[in-house]
Design a protein that fits this description.
single chain, alpha+beta, Cytidine Deaminase, domain 2, 6-stranded mixed sheet, 4 helices, 28% helix
């Protein structure tokens, strides 16, 4: 007999950015600045990410495209890889992700791709601390997740390779 298993995505929706603490608002500002400097000459879709490390450092990333697609990299992975290469022992507390078309002035909701979700999830597992995730939509609403696991509940992990 079959059964249905469902997973509920838990997000807090804030009506506006000003409802967030100053630190998270600052992360949004840094993510937007990063997005403005994205190398998105092909898609013209600019994505920025800003991470807050446990020691208060902020690491930014933006999407980096290349004519020999798929040689580019998403903003989230640029930021996460940069954070761990420069601060290998530091835990990541928060990540803010913003995105917009180059021709548009406002940012829109864009969730991380599957590869980014997997990478962020593994970092979360390895540091044994949850990473808060924030995204915004074109109406100014902020979507907050208390863990990357909300976006990737059935992830592939190291445990799967070690258990037979």
């Amino acid at each position: 007999m079959s059964e249905i298993i469902s997973h509920e995505v838990k997000l807090i929706v804030h009506k506006r950015e000003s409802d967030l603490d100053q630190q998270t608002q600052h992360l949004f500002q840094k993510a937007r600045e990063a997005a403005q400097n994205a190398y998105a000459n092909y898609s013209h879709f600019q994505v920025g990410a800003a991470l807050l490390l446990e020691d208060g450092k902020i690491i930014i990333g933006n999407n980096q495209e290349n004519a020999v697609y798929p040689a580019g990299l998403c903003a989230e992975r640029v930021a996460f890889f940069s954070a761990k290469s420069q601060n290998p022992q530091a835990s990541i507390e928060k990540v803010v992700i913003v995105a917009k078309k180059r021709t548009e002035s406002s940012f829109r909701l864009a969730t991380p791709c599957g590869s980014c979700r997997q990478v962020m999830s593994e970092y979360e597992d390895n540091q044994e601390n949850k990473i808060k995730l924030y995204m915004c939509d074109k109406d100014g609403k902020i979507y907050e997740s208390d863990s990357i696991e909300n976006l990737l509940p059935y992830k592939f992990s190291e445990n799967m390779m070690n258990n037979s």
